[in-house]
Amino acid sequence: MSNYKLLGVGTNAKTVKGDGSEYLTAILYMTPYKIMVDGKLFNSCSMAAIASCIEACLYTAGRGQMNNVQTARQRKAEWFYRDRASFMDQLYTDVHKFQKYCLTRGIKPCIRLNGTTDIRWELIKDADGQNIFEAFPLVQWYDYTKISNRKTKHIKNYHLTWSYRELMQIMRQSLMMHSLMV
Questions:
Q1: Residue 167 structural domain
Q2: Model pTM score
Q3: Looking at the chain, which terminus has fewer C-beta neighbours within 10 angstroms, N or C?
Q4: Beta bridge partners of residue 161, listed in sequence order
């Protein structure tokens, strides 16, 4: 399989289980939460503090705990914030290559852009005024989000799963404590 500069294929223990003769998944991992780039602070996961998921973030899970993996993820995030046009050109190149690889083998390409981030990719437009989902309609896109007001239902090839586990646990614990007091 071809190497990609931004996408990881066959590197995630969870997605590899579903990969095979029908589907193949690629994921983009970058530094989540807050990152300083050229003296400016950027946040790739705007709900992390509110959702209380910073400590439990998958950023350092599995291979993510290795310094070289974290360095690569940081380099991608810096590229995204420093030179968005160049980053998106490379992402489109990787997606095109991945799509071609899958389709020539009769496999459905699936891509998750927010492996460790929560970026609103639907709002990022290319030179033709399209977002990446519109530019690649043959790809099945999916992500998890903690941003409740994302408007993506109109994007037919993008599935978004609401993921707010940590806050839900806090709410359950609060309800349990309240019911014990009553």
A1: 7-181
A2: 0.79
A3: C
A4: 144
